[in-house]
Protein 1
Amino acid sequence: MSHGLIGIPEIYTILAEQLASQGFIVCAPVHTDGSPCTDLTPYHKDEKKQTESHYRNRQLRIRAANISSALNYLLEDNTFANHINIDQIGVCGHSFGGATSVQVLH
């Protein structure tokens, strides 16, 4: 599960609990791209003369890597690995988290 810009995973606790109650294993990492409200690194136009599009695309790559790393961790951890059907893995997100989800699937 991927949080949006200026978000944190805790915002989606109700959704995560609902999914877990249906038997899903839910993982919602804090992204390391500077987008969480606890670690906000805003885009500044003059920053390294990069466009906002370039900046956001870089964030998407970081966020997709965060999701992939979290999934790999779960698949390698014996506590979870035996309970995961690798043919039925999903990803979801809200706002920029939705864009992150699409990037992960790409």
Protein 2
Amino acid sequence: MWSIDLSSQRHWGYFIAAIATILGSVISFNWIFTHLRKYTDPKTQLYVVRILLMVPIYSVCSFISLVFTSIAPFLDLIRDCYEAYVIYMFFNLLLIYVRRSDGAEAIQYPVEEIYENHPTLHSPVKKIANNINHNSSKSSSNSTSNRLSADDMDIVVSILELKSPQHLLFPLDYIFPSYLYQPNRSFLTWCRRGVFQFVLIKPLLTLLEIILTYNHIIDEESLSPKRGYLYIVILDNISITLSMYCLLLFHHATDAELQPFRPLPKFLCIKSVVMFAFWQGVLIGVLANIGVLEGNIVEGWTTAKVSRGFQDWLICVEMVGIALAHCYAFPVPGGNGETSMEDWIPCYSILCCCCCCWVVCCNCCRVMWQGDVVNEGVELFAPWNYGNGNNNGGNRSKGGRVVRPINEDSEDMG
């Protein structure tokens, strides 16, 4: 029978995977650094940078798993956790886009000149210093400026409630052809829960798989109903399908509002990594199960190690293309008076470098802080929040619709 002996080619495989890991990580880190340096739109760039970190995390974890097979299951846990995390970050990014579709929030923040008394100071240094002053003042004045607030959610709900009842998406539209759902606050809450559940279930399933594998209860080489691996695959598939379905439901309901922000390339970048990695692993497992992929016991590579190594190798290579796609799908905010790349290049002074490093470090800390994710998880799944459909506060009438505050400048109509 025709077979592929990956273990005999492992040294060439290591070399190709190392080059791909370095190349993909360099491309991603360069784009991440550019976003952090030009952090002019904190609410969107917070989620964008977290999504861009997917490539280096996937690449590095996959390469280390390929070389050091003994710790591969623990690195897979990190990779799987971030996979689920990125899906929820993308959902929050869509919420920001929908919130801005009403034009109530400017995407670009104004920058003040604070060095007017120093005309000899190089212009890039001025702009970096302005960015420091602007970010610090904005952070002190509004501690929630970098995350979705209750007011943001209220505006999204008000946009959803203007929508007409809609049909479910395939395949549920064939199962329940007459069912219509009304986009409202409850719809938004359950979409968020449906996406966030994958963030909780995916790492739990991976951790369970590690524990059961080390206790020889399940076997990745067998998809027999008598072994536990089949059921973990089924539960994982159900969880990711539910997460993607809720994401698509929200996208379908707000398609008109999302169009100006080009969500399709962004969604394809996320879905390609998540879905392809999952089904790619299932396919490799099937190939190993039927004998297409074989190990080499003499060199210590079992069929299970070959399957896992082949999956890790493919991920390392694929991340180069994903990194390039991220540069297209998640551009750095520019134009309309924002600082362009040419403004930064001519300055090589020590002050310029120090200011730039300070800006990047401050913005990196904002991105790495995960308090917003923890708070949203508590808000979505806390027992006392079930049944009220309002996980983000805000003023509401008894009917559930948003009560808009009266403009102070408007006249009293009696």
